[in-house]
Amino acid sequence: MAARAVVLLSGGLDSTTALAVARAEGYDCYALSFEYGQRHARELASARRVATSLGTEEHLVLRLDLRAIGGSALTAEIPVPKGRSAETIGTGVPVTYVPARNTIFLSHALAWAEVLGAQDIFIGVNVLDASGYPDCRPEYIEAFERLANLATRAGVERRSRFRIHTPLIALSKAEIIRRGMELGVDFALTWTCYAPEADGRPCGLCDACLLRKKGFAEAGLADPVPS
After folding, report:
1. Which domain holds residue 159?
2. Is residue 121 one of the residues assigned to a domain?
3. Is 67 exposed, middle or buried (0-12, 13-18, 19+ CB in 10 A)?
């Protein structure tokens, strides 16, 4: 029987590629997504389609209301920045950062992994195109992995040695797209935009859209989700 892995799945191209990597490495994949009060549900619809397309064993969607905390353009009435230059995007922590989001998500993934008897958790973070998010850095992932093995019954009893896999962490967006294509990912199923238009199209101007656009251009490929 194949080893199990919990894969954090937002519906974006990074998490979708991370799921494809986990599957290619032979894991039985259990996808975990969150309805956390984000501005729109479009990414969750994509996550459901991706989970079906890539053949996950189960796709769990947990509901958290991070709007009660706020502090982010994704969970509060704060404008989403648009039209920023690549230099500006790469400087500082943007207002689209959701406070402690990856810690919250990884904690839930860890809990589910312990119940499933899984030792492996995949997350699609990367530092090159991370928009300055502090919870996408290697030192953060290393610290959380240490925590995972200290804070769980399975870790303390040495029944499990939890590993946090970040297969995309040192890749550019173009490299992630190429890797996904090699693994048969249908990027038409994915969603990236922080602030879609009223007609459902990506805005094409938020940081996420601009990084995606740059990635496809550098990969020499056409984005199947036009903005």
Report:
1. 4-219
2. yes
3. middle
